[in-house]
Amino acid sequence: MFIDFHDQTNKVTSDYIDMLQRLLIFAAEKEGITQEAETSVNFVTDKEIQELNRNYRQQDKPTDVISFALQETMEDELNIVGEDMPLMLGDIVISVERAVEQADEYNHSFERELGFLTLHGFLHLLGYDHMNDEDEKKMFQKQEEILDAFELTR
User: For residues 113 and 11, what is the distance between their CA atoms, to the nearest angstrom?
Assistant: First the structure.
């Protein structure tokens, strides 16, 4: 799987990037995603993610992670994904400031929080959601299974 990382904060070390790459490849294998799939992970400030949240979700506040899935087709939209094209999953955007705050709040490591947020965003790209109780239970159970199997525990 090809993963393009962008750190606009200069606060995510290469060790964290390496761990997140291994986590995403591990999760992709667990979910049966082709090795030719592509995604990006972007690390930004609260200000930048607030702007995205306001523009795309109409919520004028910072959040921890936002995903932009490219495989979702909207009504009346042409499906242009071909068999010989790489599977473009989409983009994951993470607020590093939120990750630091939440790691402290939940009393676990920054590494664990970054892993959780990255995996959460990735599962959204794969179609998982938490809009109702049943979907939330399914998604959060999947997150815990993958994080535990990867040995990235609290």
Answer: 14
Whole-angstrom distance, CA of residue 8 vs CA of residue 138:
32
Half-sphere exposure of 12 (CA within 13 A, CB side): 27
For the chain, what is the domain count? 1
Spatial distance between the Cα atoms of 119 and 27, rounded to a whole number of angstroms:
8
DSSP at 62: -
Helix locations, 58-132, DSSP H: 96-105, 110-125
Measured CA to CA, the distance from residue 43 to residue 10 in angstroms comes to: 9
Residue 154 lies in a domain: no
The one-character DSSP state at 35 is T
Residue pair 48/34 in contact (Cβ under 8 Å)? The answer is no
pTM value is 0.90
Domain residue limits at 46: 2-149
Only one residue has tokens 């705050």, namely 101
CATH number of the CATH domain containing 6: 3.40.390.30
pLDDT in tens, 30-41: 999 988 899 999
Q: Nearest 5°: phi and psi at 129?
A: -150, 175
In a domain, 56, yes or no: yes
Report the distance separating Cα 16 and Cα 43, nearest Å. 12
